[in-house]
Amino acid sequence: MDEAHRIQFTLPVGYRWFHKDQVFNFQLNRWYSFGYARFEDMQSAGEHIESFEDWTSEMISQAELALAEGRLVNAAFYFRAAEFYSTDNLPMRMHLYDRFVELFDEAFKREGFERFRIPYDGGYLPAMRVGPVGTPKGTIMLHGGFDSFMEEFYSWMRHFADHGYEAIAFEGPGQGAALRRYGLTIDCRWELPTAAILDHFHLHDVTLLGVSMGGYLCFRAAAVETRIRRVIASGVAYDYMQIPHTVVQPLVRLVFGRMRGLSNLVARARMQRDPMHRWSIGNLMYITGSGTPAEAIQFVMQLTSANLLSWLVEQDVLILTGDRDHFIPLKMHHMQVNALINARSVTARIFTAADQAENHCQVGNTGLALRVMTDWLDGLETPATPGAG
């Protein structure tokens, strides 16, 4: 890493109300909390957004202004933000994605990170590597969830590298370039892409970090793949079919599991009435490569405790949860902790408003979450060594 030219990240503390609607507010906070956005830009954007169409145009405007002013990091991630809610326009989505990656590489070109393409299932899995600073302590592999890009976690990778860890981020099927450039749709069997990354880098003793839906997928991978020795999950969802209230769970399974004709009607009716459902279901169809809502929903129905295989997880585990996560109810945290009956150790941290990290994936105090992770790793009895086996 070219330390003399590294961009310094500021990870602000506090979840801000940039927008009255949490659908938009959380995303504005995400880029701000991860150190990629200016406060005044997110505040201005929030004042001009009333719809999903407004979101895309406003974030493009913010990106173009940042680019004109030479703020490449801001510009890159504002293009990423614009892409996030642009599911109805695939050519626009691809253009925004390409602009994001182009500007990201330009912004950080002197920092010495490396990109890789790992052959997988007729396509490629993208990966990035940041080497450790100082004496190497081990390797952390990290990935996001449902619709994430590996570049989003660059500030996280830098944190781990600064603390002596080799950081490797990757995109599995359904994510980033794995989907957009190589056509790999999402698959809950996360041990398969994880194994491909481990094979490519010849790793035998790693920490796997999963974020958001990645907090589910990382346990699935760890249950099968013994080269993973430690697991960190931020944003666990032990069983997506148990997120609804227990009273309605049987109806959900009936309608979306067996009555696919009805589930298509219900989903399409919601998409017509509600822009949020139009985006979320459309995005689900895109990432799963499905032609109908019912087909897409079958993927979510696979994300159950039975398919998670928690009883096979034998590693040291750290779970980070916000007690006001608006995506995943707190009950999922406790269910996941209780299911890890064979883990070597389980450390569970619930963040509250007092921590300013009570939101999904600790957005609002990313720095605190990262410190908890590295302190936990440094405190384990048997620290890893890169490629040890």
Distinctive features:
389 residues; alpha/beta; eight-stranded mixed β-sheet
Task: Describe what you observe in this structure.
- This protein has 16 helices and eight strands.
- It is of the alpha/beta class and 389 residues long.
- It is globular and about 60 Å long.
- 46% of the residues lie in helices and 14% in strands.
- Helix 3 packs antiparallel against helix 4 (72-84).
- An eight-stranded mixed sheet has the order 1-2-4-3-5-6-7-8, sandwiched between helices.
- The longest helix is centred in the N-terminal third of the chain and has 18 residues, at 90-107.
- Strand 3 (138-143), helix 6 and strand 4 form a beta-alpha-beta unit.
- The chain folds into three domains: 11-107, no CATH class; 114-239 and 303-379, Rossmann fold (3-Layer(aba) Sandwich); 242-301, no CATH class.
What topology does this entry show?
Elements: H1 22-33, H2 39-48, H3 52-68, H4 72-84, H5 90-107, E1 114-120, E2 123-130, E3 138-143, H6 154-162, E4 165-170, H7 176-180, H8 191-201, E5 206-211, H9 214-224, E6 228-234, H10 249-257, H11 260-273, H12 275-288, H13 293-301, H14 305-308, E7 316-322, H15 331-339, E8 345-351, H16 366-379
Parallel strand pairs: 3-4, 3-5, 5-6, 6-7, 7-8
Antiparallel strand pairs: 1-2, 2-4
